[in-house]
Structure formats: C-alpha cells, structure tokens
Amino acid sequence: MPFADDLALPALEKLLGKAFLLQVFTGPERFRFEFAGAGLPAVSQGSFLDEIAPNSELSYLRAQASATVEAGEPTLLRLTEASGRELSRVLLPLWGNGQVSLLLGAVAG
Questions:
Q1: Cβ neighbour number for residue 18 with a 10 Å cutoff
Q2: Contact between 74 and 90 (Cβ < 8 Å)
Q3: Mean pLDDT for the stretch of residues 47-72
Q4: Stated pTM of the model
Q5: How many of the other CB atoms lie within 10 Å of CB of 57?
Q6: Measured between alpha carbons, how far is residue 67 from residues 34, 53, 60 in Å?
C-alpha cells in the first residue's frame, strides 16, 4: 500500500475530470474531500461526504470508502443506472500514521 506522503498534491491538482481525494477520520468514521476535480462540481474541498447530496458519481461512496478502509485494499464499484448509463469508480487506500489515512478515487462514465 502506498504511503500518503508519496502523493504529490500539485500533480493531482493538474488532473482534470473526476478524480478526488478523501481524508479518513475514525471514531466516528467520516470522510472529508481534500481535493475534487472539476468533473465533480457538486463537491467542494473541505466538505464532508455525509454533508453532500448524493448524485450518480457519489452513489454508495460512503459504503465503498468504508469497505476500502476496512479491507486496506483498492475497491472498484460498477453501477448501471435505470437510463442505461454505466458508471465505474475506483478507490485506492493510502497509508499514514499507522492506518489508512487517505483514499484516492476516480470516476469514469
């Protein structure tokens, strides 16, 4: 598992699209957006996941984030909406301070 310190935030900020970075908090478990690409306009940096109205790109993100932290392994979610639109989202855990401290994510579709 990569270390959170290995992630270069300036390089991530140059990415366009639907990439995002979640900081992991424990006790209670919460997730805060540290970065959100321009393709996720409903998300603002510093907002907590549970404060944002779910949309198609964020559907089931809290459950996926919890599963990624618990497993300590990447997760992939694939959804097909009623309209037939397909969506895929990957979350990659990053290690820091003896635990999963960040989740790097990207949405396609």
A1: 19
A2: yes
A3: 91
A4: 0.87
A5: 20
A6: 19, 20, 11
Mean pLDDT within 67-84 = 94
Answer positive or negative: Cα dihedral of 101, 71, 2, 40. Answer: negative
Residues above pLDDT 90, as percent of the chain:
50
Average pLDDT over residues 39-63: 85
Give the C-alpha separation, 96 to 98, whole Å: 6
Residue 61 is encoded by which pair of tokens? Answer: 């993100």
Question: What's the rounded Cα separation, in Å, for the pair 108 and 85?
Answer: 11
> Given the structure tokens 């935030």, which residue do they identify?
9
Which tokens is 30 given? 């919460």
Write the CB contacts of 98 (distance below 8 Å, at least 6 apart in sequence): none
Let me know: does 95 contact 2? Beta carbons within 8 Å: yes
8 or 104: which carries more pLDDT confidence? 104
Mean pLDDT throughout 48-58? 85
Cβ atoms of residues 58 and 70 within 8 Å: no
